[in-house]
Amino acid sequence: MTTVSGVGGTGAAQSQSASTAARDQLMLDYNAFLQLMMAQMKNQDPTEPVDSTQQLAQLASFSQVEQSIKMNTKLETMLANMSFGQVNDLIGRTVTDAAGTTGIVKSVEVYSDGTILGLDNGKGILLGPGVKIS
């Protein structure tokens, strides 16, 4: 099994995916929605109650968005795992980027926004168009 080690200049805090941030924000919004719905039910006019079908439709919409974000998170995880499996074969190979940085791949870091190849010379190359593998 290959060990994945760090490349200088890239922190894990920078690699938080957009779906994680969206999920965190959704949970905050979902809880706020439930609190607002409870406050609305407690403070409604008894002579003109709020339409329950409208409330259920709002709750269902929030639930659908929550499920979509969870599914996107799982898909991103699957894609990252697939990507890691493919780039794992690059360890020990020589790579050159468009700027001319060359080295032997010693480590691989897969982030939500790209893959960084750690080289034997201490530099890192972002895997993408223009990278030559030999």
From TrEMBL:
<protein>
    <recommendedName>
        <fullName>Basal-body rod modification protein FlgD</fullName>
    </recommendedName>
</protein>
<dbReference type="GO" id="GO:0044781">
    <property type="term" value="P:bacterial-type flagellum organization"/>
</dbReference>
<dbReference type="Pfam" id="PF03963">
    <property type="entry name" value="FlgD"/>
</dbReference>
<comment type="similarity">
    <text>Belongs to the FlgD family.</text>
</comment>
<keyword id="KW-1005">Bacterial flagellum biogenesis</keyword>
<keyword id="KW-0966">Cell projection</keyword>
<keyword id="KW-0969">Cilium</keyword>
<keyword id="KW-0282">Flagellum</keyword>
<dbReference type="InterPro" id="IPR005648">
    <property type="entry name" value="FlgD"/>
</dbReference>
<comment type="function">
    <text>Required for flagellar hook formation. May act as a scaffolding protein.</text>
</comment>
